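The methods section describes the discrete structure representation at length, but only in general terms. What matters is that the chain and its backbone geometry are given together, residue for residue. For illustration, here is how one protein appears when written out as sequence plus structure tokens:
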Amino acid sequence: MEITNNVTGFMIGKPLTHNYITSQFNRGRQYNISQQRRFLTMLYMLSFSCKLLLKDTIRGGKTVNREPIAFDSFIIQAHTLWSKKWLVLTCGDFKEKTFNSMTVGWGSFGVMWNKPFAQVVVRPTRYTYEFMNRFDTFTLCAFPREHRKATQIIGTKSGRDGDKISEAGLTPIASSVVASPGFAEAELIVELKKMYFSDLEPGHFLDETIEKNYPLKDYHRVFFGEILAISGTQPYSSATMHP
């Protein structure tokens, strides 16, 4: 929805780019002093509000303050993040409202072919498998402890059967680079583009206990994703650490 101020004609639905703000400022010169003051006050408040919306997401009275993180500054406790905290894998297209999510506890972060990457694995029986094969991008999101129940819902229910994202109380949002969405409640959002896949070959298992994870013979498909963007709270960035 686009909202227009009756005095200035300023369209709130427009992005507050430098050129747009300048054009609206010049347009405001046609009004009298009182109207100009009202115009500038409104413009300042809208600019400030939009800045806060980009920077902070307020949910349940708490603020998630995510900032862009360079890969060289990205710090994690890998084992804790994957096996204890869990991540939510989301693949699809936010604008088309076609995407699905699943909770993942197996994977890795690192460097491959001189590119920062993450590895995820998806069983062919999962609904997200169809999206991972169809779309080129995906995201990985970590959440604060209070959203543990939400990640359990995302991990135990299927998107085939209903809107589990709404049931979990999570809010999909547009990512900064990729088509797949992140989540407003996330403390970490990693945006990735697929660059490789392969299917696990049971004949290559060197540890015989691995086979016990596949009683249905539904061996994972492995996806490598190049990391294109990271945003997160301070604990995920070494740039916020002081010597």
